[in-house]
Amino acid sequence: MMSITEISKSTPAELVKALLGEIEASLSEAVKQRGLASLVVSGGNTPRALFEALSQCELPWSQITITLADERWVDISSEASNEAMVRKTLLQGPASEANFVPLKNTAETAAEGQQMCHEIFSSLPGPFDLVILGMGDDGHTASLFPGVSGSALNSNSIALCESITPPDAPHERMTLTAKALLNSRKLILHIVGDSKWQVYQNALSEGSADQMPIRIALHQDKVPVDVYWSP
Predict the structure, then answer these.
(1) Which of 9, 14, 67, 155 is deepest in the core (most CB within 10 A)?
(2) How far apart are CA 132 and CA 41, in angstroms?
(3) pLDDT-based confidence at 17, cuts 50/70/90?
(4) Domains in the chain, CATH or no CATH each
């Protein structure tokens, strides 16, 4: 198993400050070394404050590509759209200069849009510099859900994107697969609350990724993982 670094802070605000430092350093170094950088972010409520703070950082944003770990197959006008949330919180101020690559495309369904998504992501330079993941109480990450993610959990699969229909959540989804998410220089798991810490501890124990998909990140030996947590 890859060594995991745990960073805990007493409040979510202090956690955001610590995360900002790592993200800024990683993206700046990537641009310095390679002339470009890439950042994969997740939706949900947890990263909103992080995104708002990150948007104001003085980074070479025009050389940074941002994309999503997953997306609900809804119009950008929907409150359920991760892209809409990222545009409102992260792609503001200085960060509005970043290159954003959406997961939602013009196809009517996620299943019909899967091939187009795969082709777009195949053309992006890799590996990603940073992938920031969240985690649900059931151990899901991105839109990789227990019991329904199938080949998307196979890191040897060819597909970079896969359409998912969650069992207990609304909307068809498009998710980056384990193969795509693990094609990165570093993974960050950003979680808040005692219940999420317990889920994380459970995910560290032996078991299948099919039961707790976050294990694709925690039980692998190729990509370093930083876990950021606060109560």
Answers:
(1) 67
(2) 5
(3) very high
(4) 19-56+64-172+182-189 (3.40.50.1360)
